[in-house]
Amino acid sequence: MEKSIGVGWGDFSKNAKILIITNLVYAFVLPVVDIFVASYIMRNSNDPTKVMLYQLAIYSGIPLTFLLNGYLLNLVNIKKLFSLGMLLSGISMVVMMSLEEINYTGLILAGLIMGMSFGLYWSNRDYLVLTTTADRTRNFYYGLDTFCYTVTGVLVPILIGWYLVNGSSVDNDGVNLRYQTVTLAVFVVTIIASVIFHMGSYEKPKSEKFFFLKFHPVWKKMIQMSWLKGLAQGFIVTAPAMLMMTFFGSEGALGTAQSVGALIAALIMLLLGKYSKPKHRLVIFSVGLVSFFLAALFNGLLFNATGVILFMVLLLIARPVLDIAYFPIQLKLIDVLSKFEKRNEFSYILNHEFGLYVGRFVGAMTFLVLAYVGSVEVALRYALLIIGGVQLLSIMIAKQLLKKQKELENEMD
Question: Could you list the residue ranges that cross the membrane (predicted)?
Fold first, then answer.
């Protein structure tokens, strides 16, 4: 039975609290990885297609590492794998910064290492959230989570953006040297996050079969949602950096733009997570998708500095709102199906990641095809609009999924 008031910090277990604090610390790394690696490539190559190829290398490394992680969990402590995932993000940046020129071989190598980092981090994190939280606390968990990374998404781009462009040396070599300093800071933060995480005690998944090709029909709805979610991920991580560097040409402007509206969005996320209930997830999810579509629409219609600012503000709202609803929907369905089909929870996490990969690949290729057939400007302007429109289908799919999930729960009772 749902509580009439919101949940609080005391409703989390000790392990869940440590996981939240770990993710809070690591949240200071994610904006660097998401934004400034892409801007570094743009600064040193001035070629958006290289940014997308780097992103494709990342997305290719993620599902393969998810699969590898399933086997490693039988041999290695989950805490070590989770920590390694965080540390690899710094190693990937070192590889990138050590390149004398931004060539395709270096891009692919750095991208694959970053993909391995994300693969180890997210596959183990998804499982840890699943096993340390209950369905009624997950809205608040992801509210806290999105609050943390939205706030860091404000602070980190401002601090790093202005640090990069306001040093004593403003030429390209001077800025690149400051990128290397940022990389060192990333290493330090990942080590701190790893030390905090090791204060918890976490059980690994049971040593059971985790690779399946056939799933319950309701899970197919979840995979359809993952395809559509992946469409945006295939482009949205690097889109802000490419748009900002195109219209403003400065990491400082990039950092400032990221802060517009984000603090308000962070507060909304915290309140949504605390006071919303599982029954509100479809409405929250729909608001996130509509916000994303409007962001893409303003960018496509205006395609100027004003359009980019509007895009950034709406995106800072859309991404966390979607996460607050999407991930609890996914984890609740895993809770139900793992009991119904008597399978390892990790098997669903792995399968879901391959669904995301299909969407990411199609999203990234949409940009590259538009850039090849038309121009980079055409791709930056219309790829997001196409993806934002198609993603609205997720509202109908989510509604069907929740209905079928309820029917399945009633059948199990």
Answer: 20-41, 53-74, 81-98, 104-122, 142-165, 177-197, 230-248, 254-273, 282-302, 308-333, 354-373, 379-398
| d(C-alpha 339, C-alpha 193), whole Å | 33
User: Nearest 5°: phi and psi at 45?
Assistant: -130, -25
Q: Is 2 exposed, middle or buried (0-12, 13-18, 19+ CB in 10 A)?
A: exposed
User: Which long-range contacts does 252-256 make (Cβ < 8 Å, 24+ apart)?
Assistant: 252/161, 252/162, 252/164, 252/165, 252/166, 253/161, 254/35, 254/39, 254/157, 254/161, 255/157, 255/158, 255/159, 255/160, 255/161, 255/162, 256/157, 256/158, 256/161, 256/162
Per-residue b or e along 340-355, where b marks 16 or more CB atoms closer than 10 Å to that residue's CB: eeebbbbbbbbbbbbb
Split at pLDDT 50, 70, 90, the class of 157 is: confident
User: 3-state class of 155 per DSSP?
Assistant: helix
Output phi, psi for 6, to 5 deg. -70, 160
Return the residue matching tokens 């496509």: 300
Question: How much is the average pLDDT of 12-28?
Answer: 93
Confidence of residue 1 (pLDDT cuts 50, 70, 90): very low
Here the tokens at position 141 are 């968990």
Domains and CATH numbers, the chain: 9-200+213-412 (1.20.1250.20)
Neighbours of 376 (CB within 10 A): 18
Contact 27, 148 (CB under 8 A): yes
Structural tokens at position 395: 């509202």
The yes-or-no verdict on residue 344 having pLDDT over 80 is yes
Residue with tokens 């989570």: 145
Say what the pLDDT of residue 153 is.
Answer: 74
> Which of the two residues, 216 and 2, has the higher pLDDT score?
216
Task: Give φ, ψ of 74 to 5 degrees.
Answer: -80, -15
